[in-house]
Amino acid sequence: MNKIICIANQKGGVGKTTTAINLSASLAAAEKKTLLIDGDSQGNSTSGIGTDRNAFQAANLYHAMIGHVPLKDVIIHTAIPHLDVVPSNQDLIGIEFEFIGLEEKEKRLKNLLTSLDSHYDFIIIDCPPSLGMMTVNALAASDYLIVPLQCEYFAMEGLGYLLNTVKLVKAQLNPNLALGGILLTMFDQRNLLSHRVSDDVRKHFGDKVFKTVIPRNVRLSECPSHGLPIILYDIKSRGALAYMEMAREIIQGGL
Q: Domain 3-253 belongs to what topology?
């Protein structure tokens, strides 16, 4: 059975897309068949994984969501063995308006994913920085939620809203949804505040916080502009080692 994991946090700039891209690439590097779904209309996971924008102009996730094409027809192979991507672009904004009044609109993505059977070991969904229709669809379709949390002062400010949304989704749409873990990102070893945030989160959430911590790393910031995940851009960097360790933690932990 495949494991469907959504990466979500309505707060922007916390490393959500960076995590979706580099976790997917690291799982694929571990020879796990992985599908990365770009659920954000900004299309950053699509470009950050190195997908040619000209390759998906005819159809992408939006067209599958509105029922024009099967999901399998918009899957694109990447340069990384075992890693495929479902691309997105600004078309995806349209579902916020087009789904108004539709029945079971929150389960569109879940229904699409059932058609893939068990072809993939992991399906990773990158969500937009909001709690809109696409994020709700991702939560309704997923087995687990991973929340990237920036190691800064306002890190936990919006976490309560997200976890309340998860409770509603569990109650009404997906009783099997579980919090897979909170991932501390942009950790600065030299910064006392990073350590305080880390301590507070671990005290509050216990073993729901990943042991792996993603450091603040220049190479991680650079690799999206080259259209490469960190393991292809600089595999010896601290960022690459951290995401490979996170993939190992997920695989060994049975997530």
A: Rossmann fold (3.40.50)
What is residue 197's DSSP assignment? H
Query: pLDDT tens across 2-31, in order?
Result: 899 999 998 888 999 999 999 999 999 999
Structural contact between residues 36 and 126, judged by C-beta atoms closer than 8 angstroms: yes
Predicted structure pTM score: 0.95
For the record, the structure tokens of 79 come out as 């340069």
Question: Domain map of the chain by residue range?
Answer: 3-253
Element (H, E) at 213: strand 209-215
Q: pLDDT tier at 54 (50, 70, 90 boundaries)? A: low
- Let me know: does 151 contact 187? Beta carbons within 8 Å: yes
d(C-alpha 187, C-alpha 193), whole Å: 9
Compute the distance between CA of residue 209 and CA of residue 249 in angstroms, rounded to an integer: 11
Q: Alpha helix (H) ranges present in 77-226?
A: 95-98, 108-114, 133-141, 159-172, 192-205, 218-222
